[in-house]
Structures are given as structure tokens and as C-alpha cells.
Specification:
about 190 residues; mainly alpha; Rna Polymerase Sigma Factor, Chain: A; Arc Repressor Mutant, subunit A; 2 domains; about 70% helix
Length: about 190
């Protein structure tokens, strides 16, 4: 990595070349990968688990497992997708251990204090009904919606976290908003 650093800026270095360098023992290369993916891994875990402590543990465990399994990483594969698969599996394991229904209760501590205009209208009218509607929403719609509006992640980041095409994420967020509109109208 030291040689790479003199010829390329860290942003220009691909994740896969950093993974190869880390596999060869370059600690700084792995640190760079951690700094690139820490936020999206944590946002996914927090949205999925609804527990800051569990999300921190899962995120840390994902990076530890990735480091320990670097020799099994195929350099031709996508580092981000591989890491997010580890994060998703750890989240599923944590939920399985809890043995609870897959719905989550929103935690106001991590919600952005400045919601988008679409959500502002809904929040001001009937916050409790909205929270009930979000909890009743199927997980495939709820997780992208919360990652987008709650954790302020881009569609590309959500797609990476969920292992889906970006167009699917956009469609699921739109579907979630349609679900909320219909549910809120039905409650009137």
C-alpha cells in the first residue's frame, strides 16, 4: 500500500486492491476499507436491529470476520458486497437470537431531526398512526424506507447494504411511501 499511496490518492485505490494489500498484511489498507464502509454497515445494522449497542457490536464483528476471512475473499469480487453480506448475516443471526417478530419499533434517538418535507407532513398530522403503519409495513419496504429517511443513506448505499439493484431500492422506497399513504388514508 505504501507504494500505492505515492502514486494514487486513497480515493483512487479500488476496494479490491486494498483488500489484496490487506491480505498481504497491510494494516493501513484494511483501515482504509473500514473507514470507507463503517458508516453504511452501521446504518444498515442500526436500521435492521433498532439497537445502537447491537448495531455497533454487529458492525465491529463484521469487520473482525472480514479481516479473519481475507484469505477467502475473491479479489475479483466486490469487497463492499462481500462485507455487507457478512453484516446482513450477522443481523439475521442477532434477530434469530432475539426470537422476536421481524418488525421493529422506531427509536427517536437516531431519527434525523430534520425530516424531509414528505415526512414532515405525515409526522405533524398523526405521528402515532404513522409509527403504527411503519411497524405494520413488510420488512422489504420498511428497511429501505428507514435507511433512506431515518439514517439518511443514499439509494446506492442502501442497494449495497441490502444486496439489491439500486432500481429495486428506489421501487421499494416508492412502494413504502404508497403503503404509508394508503394506510394513512384508511385511518381517516
Amino acid at each position: 500500500m505504501a507504494e500505492m499511496a505515492t502514486t494514487q490518492s486513497p480515493v483512487d485505490v479500488t476496494d479490491e486492491s486494498l483488500a489484496a494489500a490487506a491480505r498481504s498484511g497491510d494494516r493501513q489498507a484494511f483501515d482504509t476499507l473500514v473507514s470507507r464502509y463503517r458508516d453504511i454497515a452501521f446504518a444498515y445494522a442500526l436500521t435492521h436491529l433498532n439497537s445502537r449497542e447491537e448495531a455497533e457490536d454487529v458492525t465491529q464483528e463484521a469487520f473482525v470476520r472480514a479481516l479473519m476471512a481475507l484469505n477467502r475473499f475473491r479479489i475479483q469480487a466486490s469487497w463492499g458486497a462481500w462485507l455487507m453480506r457478512i453484516v446482513r448475516n450477522l443481523c439475521h443471526d442477532a434477530l434469530r437470537r432475539r426470537r422476536v417478530r421481524s418488525s421493529v419499533t422506531l427509536d427517536d434517538r437516531w431519527m434525523d431531526s430534520a425530516p424531509t418535507p414528505e415526512l414532515l407532513t405525515l409526522f405533524s398530522e398523526r405521528r402515532s398512526e404513522l409509527l403504527s403503519a411503519i411497524e405494520a409495513m413488510p420488512e422489504k419496504f420498511r428497511i429501505p424506507l428507514l435507511m433512506h429517511y431515518g439514517a439518511r443513506r443514499t439509494n446506492k448505499e442502501i442497494a449495497l447494504a441490502l444486496g439489491l439493484p439500486e432500481s429495486t431500492v428506489i421501487g421499494r422506497i416508492a412502494g413504502a411511501l404508497r403503503f404509508l399513504r394508503k394506510r394513512m388514508v384508511d385511518l381517516q
